[in-house]
Amino acid sequence: MTLRSILHYPDNRLRQHCPEHTSFDDSLKELVSDMFETMYHEKGIGLSAIQINVITRVITIDVSKEQNQKLVLINPVILEMSEPILFDEGCLSVPGFYEKVERFNHIKYEAKDVNGNKFNSEASELLAVCIQHEIDHLDGKIFVDYLSDMKRSKIEKGLTKQKNNNTSPQRTENPYIK
Ligand code: QAP
Ligand code: CO
């Protein structure tokens, strides 16, 4: 297990389109274990491989309060969605900033697990939003893309400033886990 460092907006490496993941071997298990370690360390509920600069369609999620319900999604696809909602989102690649984004409250999706077995499932609320947010990453998309130019440039300026003075916010708790 290795802690990996997370790319921060506006890093252009976050803009790549990730290809389908094809190898279900020990190197995938290592990637997934590093992603969970990094995600839990950074107090996140969702992480995409591209955020640690691995360009492939692999996602780790844990929205449980006890942080003991690991979900791995490989090559996930949303099949159905319903009921738009506004959700206050953040992102480990956009530390310290939160804005409302329109998402779907319920989704049906399919994905492969870490062994390469395809499964179908449904999600609502926080989990549904998290899956939509993470799939966006696999397509080079970040939640700030949905915001007004003014909000996005405010965030970009703030993060560039943080980087220059080395003043990233201390992540003491995950605001999404109540
Ligand atoms: C994506 O985001 C997400 O800035 C995952 O100081 C966000 O794990 C899905 C985090 C909202 C659904 C709803 C961000 C923690 C974690 C921060 C995250 C921070 C501490 C973000
Ligand atoms: Co994110």
Quick take:
This protein has a single domain, classed as Peptide Deformylase.
Question: Which secondary structure elements does this structure contain, and how are they paired or packed?
Answer:
Blueprint: H1 26-41, E1 46-48, E2 58-61, E3 71-89, E4 99-112, E5 118-124, H2 125-138, H3 149-165
Antiparallel strand pairs: 1-2, 2-3, 3-4, 4-5
The structure holds 2-phenylethyl (2E)-3-(3,4-dihydroxyphenyl)prop-2-enoate (QAP) and cobalt (II) ion (CO).
Please tell me the total number of domains: 1
Helix-and-strand structural type: alpha+beta
Order of helices and strands: HEEEEEHH
Helix content: 25-40%
Name of the CATH class: Alpha Beta
- Major sheet characteristics: 5 strands, antiparallel
Order of strands in the sheet with the most strands? 1-2-3-4-5
Number of helices: 3
Number of strands: 5
Assign an overall shape: globular
Task: Give the ligands present.
Answer: 2-phenylethyl (2E)-3-(3,4-dihydroxyphenyl)prop-2-enoate, cobalt (II) ion
Terminus-to-terminus distance:
28 Å
What does this structure look like?
The protein is α+β, with helices and mostly antiparallel strands and 178 residues long. The chain has a single domain (12-164), classed as Peptide Deformylase (Alpha-Beta Complex). 26% of the residues lie in helices and 26% in strands. The chain contains three helices and five strands, in the order H-E-E-E-E-E-H-H. The radius of gyration is 16 Å and the shape is globular. The two termini are 28 Å apart. Bound molecules: 2-phenylethyl (2E)-3-(3,4-dihydroxyphenyl)prop-2-enoate and cobalt (II) ion (CO). 2-phenylethyl (2E)-3-(3,4-dihydroxyphenyl)prop-2-enoate binds next to strand 3 and helix 2.
